[in-house]
Every structure is written in structure tokens, then in C-alpha cells.
User: Fold these one by one.
Assistant:
Number 1:
Amino acid sequence: MDFTLFSRDLFAEMDRLQRQMQQAFELSPSIRGFARVGYPALNVAGTPDSVEVYAFAPGLEADKIQVQVEKGVLSISGERGSDLPPADDERWSVHVNERFAGRFHRVVTLADDLDPNEVQARYRDGVLHVSIRRKEAAKPRRIAVT
Amino acid sequence: MEEKKDAVIREPQAAQKPALVPPVDVVEDEKGLTLCADLPGVPRDKLAVHIEGDTLVIEAEMGLEMPKEMEATHVEVSMPRYRRVFALSRELDPARLTAGLKNGVLKLRIEKAAHAVARRIEVRAD
């Protein structure tokens, strides 16, 4: 398999298509990792106080990642440049080209009980962690019975 | 050249814990090979790159901080570790391997042995 025959953009395009299909049909991702699963891969979890979103987005700079919450949707977008040399550079040959390069955009629909003003985002070791707090009023409260 | 294209091999024995196979780029120039691997979530102290015989092994564990009482609702990354094995070809010098990890991307460089660096042979037209 020598991918230098094909333009790299084609593969980026295939990745994007695959990701869109995956989002449309909610297929389970492959155990083989996320080379063809989508960039960034997302894990979402809930706690009693918050929803935690982990975006596995290696190779970015924190200030180049756009995180937005609008109309109940969290959107994560940005661009990852390629580490490969230019295709027309004859001093290099590309043997394996599996890593994502290009623009990315992923969205997560948020539940109604989340507070769009209480969002924290941190980027560390290639993982973006977004924490969204639940609204105070929506938290379960114990009502004392007298 | 032909040999190197087939150098990416799958895990030979299944003795290890299940692990994700990270995507990589491998690029060659006349002096050596450069490999980039996506290892999001891996801090420097949980990355191990070693050479066993003529295979290169990349093993890494994620070090994510997770709040307690967390219940997953959507999971695409299901395992907290990575592993990938490559067969090295003979002209590479395992003693001259350098590795760096930044923002979850491992960049690895292996130089070719001095005698293996291709010499340019001039083709004369008679």
C-alpha cells in the first residue's frame, strides 16, 4: 500500500465522509483505533453536576481550537496541518499516511439542563476536555419530609 | 524499498492487554525514517518506545483525569492504551533513535546506518 499514488486530500475527504456517515447512523467505532473513525474522536460522560466531553485531538495548539456553545449545541472545530512533506518534494517518500490532516468540525447536542454560561475547556496531551455544568435548578434535590 | 512497504505488521501475539492501534505517518528521506503517531491523552512518563531485536514497539497509556461518579453516554475511544509494532529493516540503526512527544503526537526519527546511506551514482550518456 503506497498512498503516494493518491492525493492526500482524497483521503482527508474519505475520512470526513466516513465520519459523517458514522454520525448519521451511529455505528460503533472500530477497535482498530480512530484512523478512520473521525477526528477528533469523542467520548461523552455525565456526572450529577456536569457533562464531560473528551475530544481526542492530538497535534493542535490550545489557542487554535474553537469551542462554542450555541442554541444547545457544543461545537468543536479547527484545523490540523499535515506533518508530511509536500507531495512534489522528491527528497522524501511517504510509506504510511494514516493520520488526519485538514479542517475538522464535530458537534454534540446538549441536554436542556446544562448551563451554557458554565463551560470550561482545557487542552492537555492532545485531549480537549470540555466540562459543562448542569443548571442549579436542574440538580436533584432531596426534599425533607416533616 | 519493497521490503519497507510491508514493514507494518500486526501484533503477533495476543498476550498483552487489548490496546488501540494508533494511526501513523511514516516518511523516508535518504538519511533515515521519520514516524509520527497520534497518541492523544498520553503524558511523557507513560510512553514507552523500545526496540526488541528487529522490531520497534510503541506502547503508551493515557493519563486522563476523570471526575468521579462519571457515567459514559457516548464512547468512541474505548480503551486507555495504545500499542503498535513495526518491523525494522536492516539498514536502520536502532542505536540512533530519537523520540519526542508533544500535544499527544509522538515524533520518532531513526537514522540509517552510515554504510546504508545511498550514494548517488552518476549515469553517463555515451
Number 2:
Amino acid sequence: MRFLLAAFFLLLAVVAPRAAEFAVYDVYIDSGTEALAAYQLKISDRRAAVKILSVEGGQHASFANAPKFDEKAIQRDVIKVAAFSLAARDKLPSGRVRIASLHVEVGPGLTPDWNAIVQAAGGPGGRKISAEVSISKRENQ
Amino acid sequence: MKMRYLSLVAAASVMAIWIGCSTPEPRGITVIPNRDVSISSSANAPVAGNALGLPLEPAKAAGGSTLGYETSPLLGASIGAPLSQEAEVLKQRQLDLAQYAGEELWIIHRSKVDNSAASDDQYPGTGALMTQVDEKEAPLPLKHTDVKASVVGYISTVDVTQQFENPYDQKIEAVYVFPLPENGAVNEFVMVVGDRRIRGIVREKAEAERIYAEAKHQGYVASLLTQERPNIFKQSVANIEPGKRIDISIRYYNTLVYADGWYEFVFPMVVGPRFNPPSRYGGIGAVPASPLASSGQPTDVHYLKPGTRSGHDIALTLEVNAGVKVEELECRTHKIQVQGMNEPLGTTTRRIDGESFTVKIDKADTIPNKDFVLRFRVAGKTMKTAMITHEDHRGGFFTMMLYPPAAVEALERAPLELVFVLDCSGSMSGEPLKQAKAAIRHALKKMDSRDTFQLINFSVDARQFGREPVLATRENITRALSYLESLQSEGGTMMIEGVKAALDFPHDDSRLRFVCFLTDGYIGNESDILQAVHEKLGDSRIFSFGVGSSVNRYLLDGMARIGRGTVAYLGLNDDGAKVMADFFERISHPAFTDVKIDWNGLRPTDVYPKRLPDLFVGRPLAITGRYTPGTKPGVIELSGKAGKSRIKVPVNAKSGSGETSPALASIWARSRIAELTQQETVSRDKDLSSQIRKTALDFQLLSPYTAFLALDASRKTEGSVATTIPVAVPVPEGVKYETTVE
């Protein structure tokens, strides 16, 4: 009888649907020594493992507001965001800065494989600059 | 023996499932290692558009595909489901709820008979945050609402911030049912946690509800905004920890109403208590302030007992830039401060100079228990700019005001058959009924002796003054005035009886039949009424009058729209005689009918309203549509019938001094949703719901089938499951708690 019950619970544990996981992925832009005045980002998950639920603003005051996103892309869980700041050059961020965070639901047992494209501009004139984007999972507190 | 084993296994299964469902801890968490990606872009890569504005490219690449994993079934059923589906919906909701944490089940399944036992003791421990003032103060999680509105021309942008704070010693979920204008396009939703701003995303309603329930269950701070009616919304905020504050910011756009020479800005503050006919499911219930109280309807509004306050107050600032000289402003609902004037403005009218002004609600008038209504009159009879346009990556959008041609004012009307339908239900008791009677008294005295009239009153059933409409002779009017005075208010609001009595009798072909409904519209079955009006209207026209401090504008506007008439509002401080005088001015001339527009090269698509209604003197119509960028006309032509002749008038549709407003895209999409929703109430076409859903998702708008969800996945709150606390609200000013709350 005990064996039967144990086997039943084991079977239940295997077949029972696992809860989805919620996670935050921080999006960083590294503009090196250039001041970051504007950016446009397109982020998607190659594995289609995530549903993007919310978008949070960045850590720097110039990009603290939660950025607006493209309405059509978000329906495919692809996020296209853009933001700009008209602040003076010395008030703009440079180096590696978190410019947004994505709050997502990750499918059970899945790991996202992010693909990101960034276009950036520096200084008040809107000159194109080189920039790198990186995305990392934030540890749950 | 075999049976015993089977029973044991079944029992164990049930236990295992029950444990799995009720545990507050997340199930089956998979650890996903950190994974960084790093992608570079070169300075030589093409940057789309203006580098500073960085407009987004049109969505083309399908980098992501639709997600494959399954979602749980519905937590909430769609509102307004057809009658035949009600039982199924209810059953489905109960089954679905069983999958979630047990703390919600006792609320949903509770019998309504226990409401009398509801008391403040049913709230969690309150610590020291409860304070005593003149009235008893109930500690509730909604502390303050801040409204910042701006009007440019006749387009308003309104930012509403709701400040939730947990005054208890346990974690809570706050649920607040609140009103917004029925034509408001809600398209921004930001949750503020500390100094972090988290922007919510619109998803299909069932999916958003599933994710919210799961996030709540796992202990994350999350918020969900759903539309219960076009003018009633439900805000849920999960896992607010003791002493913590979470703000929700909502932005909506809408167009102002222009009537009888005045623009009107309205901000509703409280949902009036709705009556639901027996055995009707799908409405909005009205119950006492208690987490245990339930009407059995899918959504309940909890009301504070008389003499109790919640501590929730409201601040409202309105900036108006009319674009033309403003001559007068008035606010009959609230004391306001006008910038540059030292004294609060009560219910008087003030002359002002200039094109713009700023007003605030006075600090002495911050209880959110009535609609805020501010009217301003501009110089001239029409607006400076007929058309406002906006172009972006989605195309061109426009809105414009159509005025009836001046020639209509020179024509006399035909004899009328006026039917007054007075709501005498419990919610109208006191001031609202007094105001409505005063308005009808005035109307009866203004009638022409060629006219006929009927007086119908309804509550649980309908009664009428005469067996059929009678001539408006002095004797008949005296008798009718006496009948009117004898009417008392009591009982439920079986409005369908009033609609049947008003529309189900033979029409006198020699007269135009105008049916005037005077009601607060406090019913939960709006779709039944709108459908009945649609089916029974015939040659009648409906003019609805909303009576009270916080009326159901969605219903009243809808009845007038379907009834090819107009709507007017009679607040508790308004002059009933003036409202009726304006009405008689409107109907003293024939309507401008069979309206058509020659767009003169604009080639608009999707113009709403789809079928142009008749235009009445003093009541222009706002229309909205899409067009191909670069095809703006200078002049369009409006044609229609005035009396027996057909006339054409040119309308200057040149977009003023380059005026543009990004709000127009949202306003257009909201108008489309409203039109499709109206069609849905009278049609069984299933394609309508998918069209509504698609429009709402494409423009990130709330609708019956979509919801805003915001989630803070950065940390899990401590403690077990959150207790659900409904935010109780006062009954609207002038409405009696005893006659309206179950």
C-alpha cells in the first residue's frame, strides 16, 4: 500500500504542471566614454521562452522613466523601446548603465536566449555612437 | 477491498491536489542560471529616423514567435456574456478558482444572506494607523487620488494617481472599483514601488488575470486593471506589505462634450450603487463595507455606512488652453480655486479673460463622492479649428466637430408626442427625485397645445398617468402635475419595464414621438436596456436626462445614441428649469437628418460613429477617423435634410495652425471599440469580440477583453497569502445608503 501511494505521489510530481517563474532581466548599455543621449533597442528571445509583463525605467536619472514600447511588437513578446534625454552632456550617463529592466514570466524549465539590437546617439546633436547592450538576470531578493 | 484501495488512492489524490493548490510557496521552481548576452552595434550602422526622437521602426521582423506553453483557464469570465452562457460561466469561474490559493474561495462562494453581519471587525488588525475624526474613520488601503488634467482645444489628457497604503499588520491585496469617463481611452499604466516606475502592458484579459493570480500566489507585488463596464474599472494591487505604499498611475485621453454653447470637462469620482434584476448575473453589486460581503455578482462595490469615512481624499488640477477666448466658467459640483482669484468659486459663474485658465478643487471639498463637472463657454458659436490631425508610424488620425447648419434654427418643429419616463426607484429618493420632478414640471408647462404627452413612472414595475398620451391642455397638465407630485421613490430599478411602457404602444403618425428618460441609471444590466431600446425604438427618439451627483453616463449616453436623441445631465445643484429650457430649444427646430459628408479628397477610413446621427441645434457631433498621411483636404462638404429640403454646407476642415495631438490615435481606437461593443450588445457576431481584442492590443487600450498588468518580479514579499481588502467608497452625494445597498 505504501509503495502504491509513494508511486502515485511520484507520478503526480512528474505530471503535475510546474508553476511559471517570474524574473527580472536588467538591460545595460555601455557607451564607453561617450555620453548617452538617446537609444533605441529591440530585444527578443530566440527560444520564445518569456512573456514580457512589464518594463521598468533605468538607474540613471536621465532614463529613470519607464520607457514606452512598440505596441505591435510587444504582442509577439518582442520589445522595442526608445528613449532620449535633453539634459546637458555632463548630466548624461556614460560607461555601462542600466537603462531598463524587463519583468518577465519564464516558461517552466526554460531559459531565454536574448537577442538585442541597439542604436545609440550621444550628446545634444544626436551624433551616432557605438554602444554595447547586455542583458543579465537579476537575482531575486 | 479493491474499492477501499481505490477510495484511499482517490482520497490521497484529492489531498495531494489540495495541498498543491493551497500552499503559499511556488511549485516546481526551476533554477535558471544567469545568462548574459552582449551584442555590439557599430557607429556605422544605420540609425532609424531622427537620432534624438528615435521613432520606432514599423514592426516587421518576427524575431519572436508566439509562446507555446499552455495557459491556465480563465479566472474571470467575460462580462456581459449572453444569458444562455451565464450558468456555464459561473460554473467555470468556480472550477477555475479552485486552482488558486484558498483565500479567495470563501469570498466568492459566500451566501449573500450574511451581509447583515458584516462589520469593521472583519478587516485585519489595524495597528495605530486608524484615526478618529468627526465621523468614524474606517482604515482602508486607498489613501489618496491625485488627478492632473490638461485640455487643449477639446482634447483632454488626464493623469490619475491612486496611492495605496497598507494600514494593517498583515499583507493585503487591495481591490478598488472606480469610474472613469465612458469615452476615456486608458492607455498608460505605471506602478510605482518606492522610486521605481514599472510600466504595465496590455494583455488579453484572461491571460492577464491568470498571470496576476499566479504572481499574487507566489508573493510578488503586482497590479491588474480591468474594465468592468466602459465607465467602471477594477484595480487590484497584490501583496502590499504592512506600512508600505504603492502608487498606480493611469493616463487616459478623451474629447470634451460641447453642448448649448459650453464645453464640459467631467471627472467621475464614485460608482453609484447598481440594482440588478433578480436572477440576472453579470452585473455590478452594491454591498456593505466588508471583505465578507458579496452580492453574488462578478464585481461588487463596497459602500461605507452613513457617518463613516475612509480617509480617502482627492486632489484635482485642471489646466485648460481652449485656443479661443474663454468668456465664462462654472463649476456647480465642487468649490474650486481659479488661478489668479483668491476666493473659492462655489456654484456661481465667473467671467474670465484669455484663452487659458487653471483650476483646482478647493481643500474644503475633497471627498470623492460626486462627479467633478467644469463647464466653460468660449467666444463665438463654433470652434476655431474644425479638424485636428495627427500622423505617426501607424498612419493619420483625425477628429472633428460637426455643427448643424444655421439654416436649421430658422425652421419650426412639428407637433410632438412627449413621453416622460421617471425613475422612482429607491436610489432616486430625496434630492434626485425632487430635481427630476422640477424638470418635468417645467417641461409640462412649456408644451404647445398641439402636443400630446404621457407620464410614466417605474421602479419594480411601471405605471402611467393616462391610458394613452393626452393633449397638452391646461386641464390635462394640471392633472399631470398633481399625479407627478404624488410619486414617491422606493424599490428596485426594473428599467426594462419603463422602456417597455414607453416604447411598446402605437405611434401617432401625425406627431414626432420624443421619449425623455429621467434617471440616475443605477442598474447593473445596461446591455439588456440598450438592446431593448434598439429593438423597440421604431420611429421614437430618446432624450436621456441623468439626474444626480454621480450618474451612470455610459447607460444614459448609450440610450440617447441608440435612440437618435441627445443626453443632458441634471446635477443636484443644477437648475432643472434651465436644463429643460435648453432641451426645448433643441427640439423646437427639426433635426438635421440623413447627414452625409463629401470628404473632398481626404479618403478617410474607419470613421466613427459609423452611421452619422442626426444633428440637433446646440449639439455638435465629434467624429473621428483615419486617413492616409499627406491627403488632408481644405474644405469638406456636409449635406443633409432640414425639414423637407436638402441642404449642403461647406465645413472648414483645414487643420488650424498645425495643431496635432498624439492622443488622437488612442481616441480613434477607443471610438472603434465603443462602436464594436455597441454592435455586440445587439448582435451575436463572434467576430466582433476578436476585432475589439485586436484593436485594444494594437493600441494598448483597456477593453472588455484586455487588461493592464504590471509586475515587480524583483522580489517576493514575505509572509503567507495576502488578505483581499475591497476599498469601500461613500455612496454618491444625495443617494441614500438604506435604499440602495443590499
